[in-house]
Specification:
Belongs to the elongation factor P family. This protein is mostly beta strands and 185 residues long. Helix content is 0%, strand content 53%. The chain has 3 domains: 61 residues, SH3 type barrels (Roll); 60 residues, Beta Barrel (OB fold (Dihydrolipoamide Acetyltransferase, E2P)); 57 residues, Nucleic acid-binding proteins (OB fold (Dihydrolipoamide Acetyltransferase, E2P), Beta Barrel), CATH 2.40.50.140. It has a 6-stranded antiparallel sheet with strand order 1-6-2-3-4-5, with no helix packed on it.
Length: 185
Amino acid sequence: MIDVGDLRKGDMIVYQNEMYRVIEANKHFMGRGSGLIRTRLKSVITGLIKEVSFSSGEKVEEADISFRKAQYLYNDGDHYYFMLLDTYEQYSLPAQELEDEKFYLTENLEVDLIFFNGNPVSIQLPTVVVLTVIDTEPNFKGNTVSGGGKPATLETGLKTTVPFFVERGQKIKVDTRTGDYLERA
């Protein structure tokens, strides 16, 4: 059992006898009494999103999942295909299951494939991935004074903010939890 106050984005839980992935978890505390934990849960089986409020101190069952190392191969628009590194078995996941993760997938990227009851249900990305900048504004002398950054589009379609010195064609490291630029690769 896991305390609802410890729920984070990406956690897998069992709620009302169905497995859900936590999309969002926000804590709200009132002046008196206990707080509320408002969550958005996505059913791994049906894909439906449910908003659920828990009282602080409640506990939910942690899903019995297993992780296996896999390599991302390709996608055909509807499904993303992965190969287990130990047995070379191939599995596919529907595109709607990988809403945020798809922006970090490049060919041959190693990920953890998440299994529930023997079936793949999701992936866990590495914390940092290397992506190529395909579109950004050119750098001009003197524009670093203001700090901040400029918008950039990466090879997977992810849009992020990069420092002014980053140019088109450069490889950068991106945090998969937030989508933020970390450093040049």
